[in-house]
Structures are given as structure tokens and as C-alpha cells.
Design goal:
The complex is a heterodimer of chains A (about 400) and B (about 325). The radius of gyration of chain A is 26 Å and the shape is flat. Chain A has helices at about 1-25, 135-160, 160-165, 170-200, 210-235, 240-265, 275-295, 300-325, 330-355, 365-385; strands at about 45-50, 55-60, 70-75, 80, 85, 90, 95-100, 110-115, 120-125. Helices cover about 60% and strands about 15% of the residues of chain A. In chain A, the strands form two sheets. In chain A, strands 3, 4, 6, 8 and 9 form a five-stranded antiparallel sheet that branches. In chain A, strands 1-2-7-5 form a four-stranded antiparallel sheet, with no helix packed on it. Chain A is built from ten helices and nine strands. Chain B has about 325 residues and is mainly beta. Chain B has five helices and 20 strands. In chain B, the strands form four sheets. Chain B has a six-stranded mixed sheet with strand order 11-10-13-18-15-16. The longest helix of chain B is centred in the N-terminal third of the chain and has 14 residues, at about 5-20. Chain B is globular and about 50 Å long. The chains are: A alpha+beta (about 400), B mainly beta (about 325).
């Protein structure tokens, strides 16, 4: 036993020594793999701010292998003076901030081009120039209010349909549960798409899209492990537990929606209007109904509804704050990946509820189940059309 | 409010200089873009020791001069095509193809009727030629006799007609060979010569640094905003003659506008009578004109393309006019 262990130890050390040697060799000189081509420059403009009249501020990340020197800058097809900190040369994965004293015009578009020392250009666009909101109490309040309107209010409205749903028979309940599955499938795809879209804004070196998939899968399996253990202990998941899981998953989705809306408002990509709020309200009412559906088989208390509304809708408030103030596409993508995983896991749980006859379900191939799922997807799609973000 | 774009700033300077006509000239350091405190124009300068547009503007290469047995003047030039990184704006380096390591190539200056002999060697990585504008035999046209890397070719012809001409590489793909920097001015003086004047060569060009078939930078004589940082000197009442050649690639037209003044236009430099008196002139690619004028007032006077985009992307400069 100890002999095999020491043999394994020796073998392991040999591999490590060889690996270190190989790395030292490759990183040393003249191994015949040197690149003759010019450097590959990659610069990502992560955020554009208009903190005051006559000033544009850019945050840059060098996501490439080689350092990049920003030598010139053009704004609206004019070479313009600028200030770059800490240095015009940005190392691998390094960051820099550029300030341009430029008289930008409110409500109009501006185009920025950075020119590196080798003449490579990096473009960025200000779609609609609006003063970047500073982190004042007023802005904080407005963002929070918006999150409340697009998250908490519609979910609470959806939950408020519960007394009417109580009158439904078992076919009606199965229809509603299937509808919940449909809307959750829609949300899972929507959330994953958002996550991958954000991931594409992060410099490629970070391999964010792979991380999105891994985090999604890890969340699904992590939550499955928790619920399987719970089920083994108590036989089955209570209706309230399932509603809580749904609310949690939807909450993470709404966090993502909040991020998107907050970031869009901060960069002026979307105007803060009634239309935006109305769209999200319509869209998210269905989510409330989805959370209420499993409760039809239980005896929930009124306080449960308040808690579920906050759990599912509250993250939209947090999302608008983060998105509007300190948004990072990398963390945003990962948060949405967690959301995707959580929603997929809920799809599984609610699906069980509908299709397992031993838990009161009726099986998949029933008219009301298929119709419910289809209506769920269609309603979400139709209401998504009125959401501008 | 911004501290003032270069255009606005320089306009203010011009107005200021006018109001004090006959008095002291503004100190040059007051040009706002030099501080990098806002406005157009790069806030640094190119590295010393490289191509100097200030020197280029007044450099006329008259060649190695000798007499042929017939009595005709022979001017000999050595041209080498070289691949070279050049600084086209402060801190921005461009992988150019050059004649003699510079863009534009040397300004050839001769008199009508001279025999021109150019010993061309291709030291670059691609085939090149030199195609001169002017009268010459077909085999001296630099179109069919492609000179491969490492090979040589001798161009020989009589310089005519008098005027302002140009030369450039005529190897395909033409756009790339011209845009990469293989061009220059070719001045043939009339036999009787010109009135004396302060002369400047201006080759209008641009650079597509990211190779998307659009110019990122514009200039006269290669370096963006060079004559904003280093204005060209002039004296009140003195005749100024500009040799302006348009070699801008990709854009259909170019132009020159002179502030607070008018100039006589000698189209293609092939007549001795001016054809036009104006302050703004349009140039197609390959078009070139000789312009003559004098300043009435001291001060700093701008000249630039009257395509505002080109002007703000580097094709802008100043004359610094002092009292006689």
C-alpha cells in the first residue's frame, strides 16, 4: 500500500517537473514558434459615459495577447485630443480610462474610433447622447421605482388571480401548470440568449460564453441535488416549495431584465417611458400566474404571496440598480446563466407535477397539458413583442 | 463650453492678428490644439529623425546634372523601392511602400527639354514600377515593364510639357500600390523659368491604416496636422507659389481652401496665364495645379481641404505670415 503510494508520488513529481521544464523551454527563446506576423490587437470599449456637458469618458479593456498603445482618437470623423490613464499603452487584460473634452449633442448619435500605434481601429457608438446619470439619491430612487414597476407589481398582479383560479377543476389546474412550463421554457431560452449576448461583449480571452453554459448546467444539477435530497427526506415537494423554486428562478430572470433595462437607461439606448413599463407589466403578469399555479394544490397563507412576489419581482429592483450604476457584462452574463439554470430546474419540477400521475398529474399527452404549454409560450412571445428593451 | 476646437481657436487667432495688423505677431504657443486641452488635432508631435514634412515642402531634387554630347541637359536620379514603417500621425505607424524610404517620394525638378534618367531598383517585397505623367515612349511608361523585387529598370525620356506633373507606381492592384505610398511630384519648369517666389510642394494624401478601403488620416505631405504644429513661413507682399498635387486614394475628390486670401490658378501648370482667381479649388485624383498669391496681412492663416471631414482628420495647416 505505502509502496504504491510512494510510486505514485514519484510518478506525479516527474510529470510536474517535465511540465515545468517544457513551459520554461517554450517561454524561453528560439524554440522555432515565434510569430513573424504583426501583433494581434484587441481592445474592448466596455462603457461610455457622458458625465457632464463637453466630456466623454471611455472604459477600455485589452482582451488580447499583446499590449495595445492608443495613439490617436477620432470622434465624429475628427481627430480629437484626449487624456488616457494610467497609460496610453495597455497591457494584456489591462484597463484604461480615456477622457475626451468633446461638445457632444444631447439626443444625437456620436461615433468614436480609437487608433492604435499600428493603425488598427476600434469603434464605439453613442446611440443617443444623454447625460450619464450619476449615483445620486434621486436616480437611485427612480431606478428602484422602475424595478418595482416592472418586477414586483406585475408578479403581484399575477398572484392576485389566485382566488379566481381556486374555482378551477383539476383539468384547469393542469392547464395552468402546463402553461407555467411553457412560460418557463420561454424564459429559459430568453435568459440564456441574453446571457450569451452579454458574454459576446466581454473580451474573448475570458471565454465567457463557455462559462455561461457551465454555470447554467452547474445550477441545474446543483438545484436538482438539493431538491432530490429534500424529496428523499419528505417524500415529495410541497406546493409552496415548488412555488418558491419557480419564484426564485423567475427572480433571477427578472434580475437580468433589470440589468438590461438599467444599463439601457444609463447609456441612453432606451427612453424611460410608459411604454416600457406597460410592456414589462403585461409580460410579467404571466409569471405571477405561473407561480400561483402549483399553490392551487396547497393551502397557502396570504403572507406567502407577499414573500413570493418579492422573491420573483424584487430582483428586478436590484437589477436596475446594478445595471444603471456599475454594470459589468461579465458578471451580468454569469448572473443570467444562474437564472437560466434555475428556470430549467423549475421546468423539470413543474413538469413532474403535471405529468406524474402519482402526484396528482395526468401525463403529458393530454389535451389541456399540451394546450397549456403552447398557450404559455405564445402568451410570453406575444407580450415580449411590446417590450422595447 | 469647450476650450475651443482648433477651427474656432484658429479663427479667433486670425481675427486677433487682423485687428493688430502691422503690429507684433501672436506667439505661436497660443494655438490651442498644441496643449491637447481639447479641440481637433493630435496633442503630440512625430518622433524627430524621421520624415520631415517641413523640409520636404521646400526640397527640390534636381538630380545629378551633366551634358549629353548633343548639348542637352541630363538629370540622373536613383530611385529605390523600400518597404518601410512610417509615422503618419503622432504615434501611428503605417507599413508603407516607399520610393527612397519616404512618402511622398523625392520631388523631381527639371526644365522642359531636359533628358531625365531614373535608375530604378526594386528593394521592396512586391513588384513595382514608376509611371511618370508626361510625354514619353510606350516602354518608358512604367505599365508593362514590371520590375520584380531585386530587379532594376532605367526610365529615360525628355521632360515635356512644362508644368506640374506626378509619378506613381502602376503595378496592379493599383489602388494598393498607390495608397501604400509609391508616388511623388514631378515639376517641369518652362524654359524661360518662373518669376522668383517662395515655393512649397504640397502632395495631398491619406492613409487607410486598417485596410478597409477608407482613409483614417488625411494630410498634405503625409503627416496629419503637421503644418498646424509647424506653420509654413511667409512674408507680407512676397509672391508664394504652391505646387499642389492630389494623390489621395479612395475618396473621389479633394480640395484646397486658403483663408483670407485669393490665389491665381495655373491649371496643371501648363500655361503661363492664370485661368482662375479663387480661394477654393477642387482636385480629382491625379489633378495638380500651380497656385500663386501673396498675403496682404501678417498673422496666421489657415489652409485646408474644404471637405470638413478631411480637414478634421489631418488635412489642415497654417501659414505664419510676418511683416516684410
Amino acid at each position: 500500500m505505502s509502496r504504491t503510494r510512494s510510486a505514485g508520488l514519484i510518478g506525479g513529481s516527474v510529470v510536474i517537473v517535465l511540465l515545468v521544464g517544457l513551459l520554461a523551454f517554450l517561454l524561453g527563446r528560439n524554440v522555432g514558434l515565434e510569430r513573424a506576423a504583426p501583433p494581434i490587437e484587441e481592445l474592448t470599449i466596455q462603457r461610455i459615459e457622458l458625465p457632464q456637458a463637453g466630456l466623454v469618458r471611455l472604459n477600455l479593456v485589452n482582451g488580447g495577447v499583446d499590449p495595445v498603445t492608443v495613439s490617436q482618437l477620432m470622434i465624429d470623423d475628427a481627430i480629437w485630443a484626449f487624456d488616457i490613464k494610467p497609460d496610453a499603452t495597455i497591457g494584456r487584460l489591462g484597463r484604461a480610462t480615456i477622457e475626451i473634452p468633446y461638445p457632444w449633442v444631447e439626443g444625437e448619435a456620436h461615433e468614436i474610433v480609437l487608433v492604435s500605434s499600428t493603425g488598427v481601429t476600434f469603434d464605439a457608438e453613442i446611440a443617443v447622447a444623454m447625460p450619464t446619470p450619476q449615483a445620486t439619491a434621486g436616480w437611485f430612487w427612480r431606478l428602484g421605482l422602475l424595478g418595482f414597476y416592472i418586477g414586483v407589481v406585475p408578479v403581484a398582479l399575477g398572484l392576485a388571480t389566485y382566488p379566481f383560479l381556486r374555482g378551477l377543476g383539476s383539468r384547469g389546474i393542469n392547464f395552468l401548470l402546463a402553461l407555467t412550463v411553457g412560460l418557463l421554457v420561454f424564459l429559459a431560452i430568453d435568459t440564456l440568449t441574453e446571457a450569451l449576448e452579454l458574454a459576446s461583449e466581454v473580451p474573448e480571452t475570458f471565454e465567457t460564453s463557455i462559462l455561461v453554459w457551465i454555470v447554467t448546467l452547474a445550477t441545474v444539477f446543483g438545484l436538482l441535488a438539493v431538491t432530490v435530497r429534500r424529496r428523499a427526506r419528505s417524500g415529495t415537494l410541497s406546493p409552496l416549495a415548488i412555488a418558491t423554486l419557480i419564484a426564485f428562478g423567475i427572480g433571477l430572470h427578472n434580475l437580468g431584465e433589470g440589468l438590461a433595462v438599467g444599463a439601457a437607461l444609463a447609456t441612453g439606448a432606451v427612453g424611460l417611458g410608459t411604454f416600457l413599463v406597460v410592456g414589462f407589466t403585461l409580460h410579467n403578469i404571466t409569471e405571477g400566474i405561473g407561480i400561483a399555479a402549483p399553490l392551487l394544490r396547497g393551502e397557502p397563507r396570504i403572507s406567502h404571496f407577499g414573500g413570493l412576489a418579492l422573491l420573483a419581482g424584487g430582483p428586478a429592483i436590484v437589477g436596475t440598480w446594478i445595471g444603471g450604476l456599475v454594470f459589468s457584462p461579465f458578471w451580468g452574463a454569469l448572473a443570467l446563466a444562474v437564472g437560466t439554470g434555475a428556470i430549467l430546474q423549475v421546468v423539470y419540477e413543474v413538469g413532474r407535477l403535471v405529468t406524474r400521475t402519482e402526484t396528482g398529474g395526468v401525463g403529458l399527452w393530454r389535451g389541456e397539458v399540451l394546450a397549456g404549454a403552447a398557450v404559455g409560450v405564445l402568451v410570453m412571445y406575444a407580450t415580449a413583442l411590446v417590450v422595447p428593451a | 463650453m469647450l476650450k475651443g476646437g482648433a477651427l474656432a481657436g484658429a479663427a479667433a487667432l486670425g481675427g486677433n492678428a487682423l485687428s493688430k495688423a502691422g503690429q507684433q505677431l501672436q506667439p505661436r504657443a497660443e494655438v490651442p490644439h498644441l496643449h491637447g486641452a481639447g479641440g481637433t488635432g493630435p496633442f503630440k508631435d512625430i518622433q524627430p529623425g524621421g520624415f520631415d514634412p517641413t523640409a520636404f515642402a521646400t526640397e527640390f531634387d534636381r538630380g545629378r546634372v551633366s551634358q549629353l554630347p548633343s548639348g542637352q541637359t541630363l538629370r540622373e536620379y536613383d530611385f529605390v523601392a523600400i518597404d518601410k514603417e512610417i509615422e503618419i500621425a503622432p504615434g501611428v505607424w503605417y507599413p508603407a511602400w516607399t520610393y527612397n524610404g519616404r512618402v511622398p517620394g523625392p520631388t523631381i525638378r527639371c526644365t522642359e527639354g531636359d533628358r531625365i534618367r531614373v535608375n530604378f531598383r526594386n528593394g521592396g517585397s512586391h513588384p513595382h514600377t514608376i509611371h511618370f505623367h508626361g510625354f514619353h515612349p510606350a516602354n518608358m511608361d512604367g505599365v508593362f515593364e514590371i520590375v520584380d523585387p531585386g530587379r532594376q529598370f532605367v526610365y529615360e525620356f525628355d521632360a515635356e510639357p512644362f508644368g506640374l506633373h506626378l509619378y506613381h507606381c502602376h503595378t496592379t492592384p493599383l489602388k494598393r500600390h498607390i495608397h501604400k505610398g509609391l508616388y511623388g511630384a514631378f515639376i517641369v519648369d518652362p524654359a524661360a523659368g518662373h518669376e522668383p517666389a517662395r515655393e512649397y510642394v504640397m502632395v495631398m494624401n491619406g492613409f487607410d491604416t486598417n485596410f478597409d478601403a477608407e482613409n483614417e488620416f488625411y494630410a498634405v505631405n503625409t503627416v496629419a496636422f503637421h503644418y498646424m504644429r509647424h506653420p509654413l513661413p511667409a512674408v507680407v507682399g512676397e509672391r508664394i507659389r504652391l505646387y499642389v498635387v492630389n494623390l489621395l486614394e479612395f475618396d473621389l475628390i479633394n480640395s484646397l481652401h486658403l483663408h483670407a486670401n485669393f490665389f491665381h490658378v495655373y491649371r496643371t501648370g501648363t500655361t503661363l496665364e492664370p485661368g482662375e482667381f479663387t480661394d477654393t479649388l477642387m482636385f480629382c485624383q491625379g489633378e495638380r495645379h500651380v497656385l500663386e498669391f501673396e498675403f496682404r496681412h501678417p498673422g496666421q492663416f489657415m489652409f485646408h481641404a474644404h471637405q470638413s471631414e478631411f480637414a478634421e482628420l489631418g488635412w489642415m495647416g497654417l501659414f505664419d505670415v510676418t511683416d516684410a
